[in-house]
Amino acid sequence: MEHDKIELVLVFTKNTGLRKAQTVLDKLGVKYREGMDSSKGKIYFYNTGPKFILTFETDKERNELENKYQDLKEIHEIYTPDWTIQKD
């Protein structure tokens, strides 16, 4: 499966609720949907909070988001998904 979209996976900390996560994403003004790639495995899935796939029209938009999120304590990690890895 080939993906030509510009995407990032945003993972919230374990204690962040779904509504809070969606509020943070709405404030960031990004296009998102729930989910993640499967490259991290089950342990990572259960030890972190809500996960979202963010979609961007341009690299500039992606880079702006990567700069904005660093000050948000609710965010555990942002990474580029690897759709070729199938774990668990």
- Mean pLDDT across the residues is 88
State the helicity in percent bands: 25-40%
The assembly state of the depicted protein chains is: single chain
End-to-end C-alpha gap: 18 Å
- Which fold name corresponds to the CATH topology? Alpha-Beta Plaits
The domain tally reads: 1
Overall form: globular
Tell me what the structure shows:
By secondary structure, this protein is of the alpha+beta class. It has a single domain (6-79), classed as Alpha-Beta Plaits, CATH 3.30.70.60. It is built from three helices and four strands. It has helices spanning 18-28, 42-46, 59-68, and strands spanning 6-12, 31-34, 51-56, 75-79. A four-stranded antiparallel sheet has the order 2-3-1-4.
Keywords summarizing the entry:
alpha+beta, 25% strand, 88 residues, 30% helix, 4 strands, Alpha-Beta Plaits
What are the SSEs and their pairings?
Layout: E1 6-12, H1 18-28, E2 31-34, H2 42-46, E3 51-56, H3 59-68, E4 75-79
